Amino acid sequence: MQCATTAARSLLWTVSYPLAAAGSERSGASLGVVLGLLNGVWAGTVLLGPLAAGLAADRLSAQAVFGLTAAACLAMLAITVLVAGPIRRPARPCHQVSGPNGSSS
């Protein structure tokens, strides 16, 4: 299972750290604090996720555990969308590109 999930984890980590760095710049928090919080979230999910899954699988049926997992994912998506709010992108000035003879294209 570790080998099967390596590609998904590497993509997730490759995307999340630059996003956290950009978020630290926008929020005014230091990069160290933001990356420390991100590492704390990773550690919590790595430690608590398998324990919670094992406990749930021991007490409930596989279908119930699957349903709870899907519900938790949807709940986290909804919370993320609410917390993130609208995406604001900085305005970029439009520059005209000139051709080889100096004419605009």
Order of helices and strands: HHH
Low-confidence spans? none
Structural class based on helices, strands and sheet pairing: mainly alpha
Biggest sheet statistics: none
Shape category: elongated
DSSP E strands, number? 0
Distance between the termini: 53 Å
- Strand residue percentage: under 5%
Mean pLDDT: 80
- By DSSP (H or I, 4+ residues per run), the number of helices equals 3
Please give the share of residues in helix: over 70%
How big is the Rg?
A: 21 Å
Description:
- The protein has a domain of 59 residues.
- The chain has three helices and no strands.
- The termini are far apart.
Would you kindly provide a brief summary of this structure?
This protein is mostly helical. The chain is elongated.
Question: What attributes does this structure have?
Answer:
single chain; 105 residues; mainly alpha; 3 helices; 0% strand
